[in-house]
Write a structure and sequence with these properties.
By secondary structure, this protein is α/β, with parallel strands linked by helices. Helices cover 33% and strands 24% of the residues. The protein contains 5 helices and 7 strands. It has helices at residues 10-20, 39-54, 78-93, 163-166, 171-185, and strands spanning 4-6, 25-27, 58-67, 74-75, 101-111, 116-127, 149-151. Strands 1, 2, 3, 4, 5, 6 and 7 form a 7-stranded mixed sheet that branches. The longest helix has 16 residues, at 39-54. It is globular, with a radius of gyration of 16 Å.
Length: 186
């Protein structure tokens, strides 16, 4: 199945292409963000909306970072937490909490105008005591939580890991593996 990947982030498109093993065409659309903590609901809404604009099969991704000390927050609202606080501010919010555990989640929604296919991945971990990234961390940028999320059983943040280190613990890689399997059999 051919599709367009709806993203304004070239690195996300490159990462997806690398791990899918196929060319990915990124297209940027300004889509309405459904305000919900239900990641699947948000992703499906964006996929339907993107299909209406593109007129052909679309793939979207949406992510959530749930910090357990904050209940279900920020969850799907992580983008706005990062815009207002940055990674440093999120870390600072946790200063008076003993529980630093978190869950990184992603949903890829592939919509062909009739059928919605959803591929998800989750990784448990915790929030670092300060943002940390590698020198060549070009993909994560200043408004990313990759510099503060450490997968369970690991000592490095996502932003400090190479793609090869990230592959077995990445919520994104887990979902992409499901998507790759689907596309192979489709």
């Amino acid at each position: 199945m051919d599709f367009v990947f709806i993203t304004g982030n070239q690195h996300k498109a490159d990462y997806l292409a690398k791990w899918l093993g196929r060319r990915v065409t990124p297209v940027k659309y300004d889509l309405d963000e459904l305000q919900s903590l239900d990641l699947r609901q948000v992703a499906e809404h964006k996929a339907r909306q993107a299909y209406e604009v593109a007129g052909k099969p679309v793939l979207i991704e949406d992510v959530a970072l749930t910090i357990h000390a904050f209940g279900q927050l920020p969850g799907t609202l992580i983008k706005w937490f990062l815009q207002e606080l940055g990674p440093e501010g999120i870390v600072k919010m946790l200063e008076n909490f003993d529980d630093r555990t978190a869950t990184a989640a992603i949903v890829y929604a592939l919509y062909d105008g009739t059928q919605m296919y959803v591929f998800n991945g989750e990784t448990d971990g915790y929030i670092a005591d300060k943002p940390r990234s590698s020198e060549n961390d070009g993909w994560h940028g200043a408004l990313s939580w990759n510099s503060i999320f450490i997968p369970e059983g690991m000592a490095k943040t996502y932003a400090e890991m190479t793609d090869e280190e990230l592959l077995p613990v990445s919520h994104r890689a887990k979902a992409i593996a499901k998507l790759r399997g689907f596309l192979k059999d489709f």
